[in-house]
């Protein structure tokens, strides 16, 4: 929601002027948010009981994305003045989730060391979305510790810089120098938003590279449904709000007194997000709750194990022959 829409939203009295239908709708949205959080709390208990310690925090962060966005949308729906802050909170949280999702794919491959052993002889395709879908001329890269560090750095920069930029936006807003409705070159909003957009695209690129190269290996762990849920949250929380705001500014979303078109569009976005995140929370519980078998060790370790077994058999046979000779 833009600052102008937020002011109009506040001026109309927020939820205080609702009729019976509006109160019922707000109650349903609040109940769905509460249920999403209860499902998440139950999932946290399950993760602490059943998931190995090395994966617990990552799974909790990823599963918390939908409930957190639903909660911030619900708070923004009831308290219109807090909309900008709740939107910033959701955006910062999801920036961290993007980094955690990359770490989850590495963990599901057995951790960093086993990941490097599995793919030490492979080359990764980097002509993937959202940056280089059509750059087929890009070379394949050989995976190494340095390459893996750069992939992690690509997602970490968003998790680090987005909170900094959001804090800067709030500081400028309190000083009257930042307004989302001011998209002129002289305004700070357009430059900060463009910079955030570039950082987001850069952060999504390592996710696409990693997913394209491990999806076959991790198919037994349902990485495709997990990636689809992550993509749905990304699209619904980022793209949907922009589309609704543009439609409201163009007058496609009609006003409904006492709500202006912008305030009505903001309400629509918040209510849609609550319903969508509620459904994603339920689906995530099914996808992440199922326990999967660990992947087999890389071939090199398997060969080493076979070699050790053969050596042990030879030593055992030699001991038996030695005992028989001594007995004779």
Widest sheet: strand order? 1-2
Give unreliable regions as ranges: 1-13, 300-309, 311-316
Strand content: under 5%
Distance between the termini: 93 Å
What is the overall number of helices?
A: 10
- The quaternary state of the protein chains shown equals single chain
From the alpha-carbon coordinates, what is the Rg to the nearest angstrom? Answer: 26 Å
Reading the helices and strands in chain order gives: HHHHHEEHHHHH
Main sheet record:
2 strands, antiparallel
What would you call the shape? globular
Strand tally = 2
Instruction: State the helical fraction.
Output: over 70%
Coarse structural class: mainly alpha
The average pLDDT is 80
Quick synopsis:
The chain has 328 residues and is mainly alpha-helical. The chain contains ten helices and two strands; from the N terminus they run αααααββααααα.
Characterization of this structure:
The longest helix has 31 residues, at 20-50. The protein is built from 10 helices and 2 strands. Helix 1 (3-11) packs across helix 9 (261-289), helix 2 (20-50) packs antiparallel against helix 3 and helix 4 packs parallel to helix 7. Residues 1-13, 300-309 and 311-316 have low confidence and may be disordered. It has helices at residues 3-11, 20-50, 53-78, 83-108, 112-118, 145-174, 188-214, 223-249, 261-289, 299-327; strands spanning 123-124, 141-142. It has 328 residues and is mainly α.
